[in-house]
Amino acid sequence: MAMQISKKKFVTDAELNEFLTQELAEDGYSGVEVRVTPAKTEIITLVTRTQNVLGEKGWGTRELTAVVQKRFGFPEGSVELYAEKVAARGLCAIAQAECLHWLAVQRACYGVLWFMMESGAKGCEVVVQSWWRTPVIPATWEAEA
């Protein structure tokens, strides 16, 4: 019985992650953390632009909370949604992929490598693929021990 409950939780978390990925794509969404307590369920979204998620006077989070409650069947008032800024943007792959958007390929790759080196990464590999370019453009760096 416990196995079914944990499977259901994982499926619900994956569906919530997929939903938030679609809703908050332009706000730099990079992950979600769900904390369940007996009274409330706290959903903490990790984004690069928190002001876009919050909206004017908090309307963005209120609307998103209402949609999550309705779609996932939470009781009224039992969900709290928070937007948290990504702490180490240089070490978050999703945030770095967002930075690549609309930039020249070579400039973008080396910009990402530089930013990751400054953030303290031990090594990095940036691979850019596209249907209209060569199949793979790799740019690599490894810290010397």
UniProtKB/TrEMBL annotation:
Taking every annotated instance into account, which residue ranges of this chain make up the domain KH type-2? 16-87
Q: Where in the cell is it found?
A: Mitochondrion inner membrane
The record's listing under InterPro entries reads: KH_dom-like_a/b, KH_dom_type_2, KH_sf_prok-type, Ribosomal_S3_C_sf, Ribosomal_uS3
Query: Which SUPFAM superfamilies does this UniProt record tie to the protein?
Result: Prokaryotic type KH domain (KH-domain type II) (SSF54814)
GO cellular component terms, A-Z: cytosolic small ribosomal subunit; mitochondrial inner membrane; nucleus
Single GO term (MF): RNA binding
Ribonucleoprotein as UniProt keyword: yes
The membrane topology of this protein is: Peripheral membrane protein
> What are the UniProt keywords, alphabetically?
Ribonucleoprotein, Ribosomal protein, RNA-binding
The family classification in the record reads: Belongs to the universal ribosomal protein uS3 family.
What's the protein name? KH type-2 domain-containing protein
Q: Which species is this UniProt entry from? A: Cercocebus atys
